[in-house]
Amino acid sequence: MLGFQPPPDLIILPPGEVHVWKISAGADHQETARPADLLSPDEKERAGRFHFEKDRRVFIMGRGVLRTLLGRYAGVEPGSIRFIYDGHGKPALPAAGNAESPAFSVSHSGAEILLAFGRGFPVGIDVERIRDGLDVEDLARRYFSPVEAAQYLSLPEEERIEAFFSCWARKEAFLKARGEGLSFGLDRFEVTLRPGEPARLVKIVGDEAEAKEWSLHDIPVGPGFKAALAARTRQPRISCYLWTPNPYRGPCSGG
C-alpha cells in the first residue's frame, strides 16, 4: 500500500519510476522566503497578483519546491529553469521530449500540494479537498460519462460524496497527464469510482488501445482529501515522499 515517508539520503528517478511529493503550504513567512528566491520574474509577478495571502503562499511553495526537485532530478540550478507552456497553460521543461528529461505534474487543494515526477512517460497528479455545498449529483450527471453517472447514482447516499471526489481526482489526473485539460471532455473516458474498487482507466471513447497504456493510482493524502496519479505506463514503481520544511540542501540526485 502506498504511503508517504521521509525521503532517503539519495533520491534517484530511473525510467519506469514515479515520485510523488507532498508539501504543506501552512508554512510561516520565513519558510516561504527561500522558495520565493528561486522563482523567475514572471512567476514572482504572478505570485504578487494573488489577492489572498494563502493562495500566494501555495503558489510560491509549489513552484519553489518544484524548481528545487527538478533541479536535483535534472542536474541543473533550480533558479535557472525556464518553463515552456502549452496551449492549456501546462508547464514543461524545454527538453520534455528527451527521455532523460523528467515529466512532472502539480496539483493543490487547500494547503495540500502534490508534485509528481516520472521519467520516460507523462504523469498527472490531482488532489481534491472533500467539501460540502456542491450539488455533486448534478455535476455527475453533467460531466461524468453515462456509465459513470449511472454507477454513481446507484450508490447509497452516504457513499456518494467520497465517490464523487475520488472519481473527479482520477479524471483530472488523467487529463493533466494527457496535457489537454477539460477540452478533451470529462465524458470521453471512464474511470472506476465505486468505494473499494481499485483506481483504473476503464476506457477511452474511440480509442480502446490507448486506454490499455495507462494506469491510475489512488494517493493517500489524508482525511478530507482524495488524490490520484495517472501515468502512461502500466506498472510504474511509485514512491511517496514528505517534503520537510527546509530540505534545500536536500537529498535528491539525478538518475
Write the layout of secondary structure elements.
Elements: E1 4-5, E2 17-24, H1 29-38, H2 41-48, H3 53-74, E3 84-85, E4 91-92, E5 102-109, E6 112-119, E7 123-129, H4 136-143, H5 146-153, H6 157-178, E8 189-191, E9 201-204, H7 208-211, E10 215-218, E11 225-231, E12 237-242
Parallel strand pairs: 1-12, 2-12
Antiparallel strand pairs: 2-6, 3-4, 5-6, 7-11, 8-9, 10-11
Helix pairs in contact: 1-3, 2-3, 4-5
Reading the helices and strands in chain order gives EEHHHEEEEEHHHEEHEEE
Mean pLDDT: 87
CATH class of the largest domain: Alpha Beta
The percentage helix is: 25-40%
Secondary-structure-based class equals alpha+beta
The oligomeric status of these chains comes to single chain
Number of domains: 2
What is the terminal separation in angstroms? Answer: 25 Å
Total number of strands: 12
Alpha plus pi helix count: 7
Strand order of the largest sheet: 1-12-2-6-5
CATH architecture of the largest domain: Alpha-Beta Complex
Identify the overall geometry.
Answer: globular
How large a portion of the residues is in β-strands, by DSSP E?
15-25%
Low-confidence stretches: 247-255
Radius of gyration: 18 Å
Q: CATH H level of the largest domain: which superfamily?
A: 4'-phosphopantetheinyl transferase domain
Largest sheet: 5 strands, mixed
CATH topology of the largest domain: Ribosomal Protein L22, Chain A
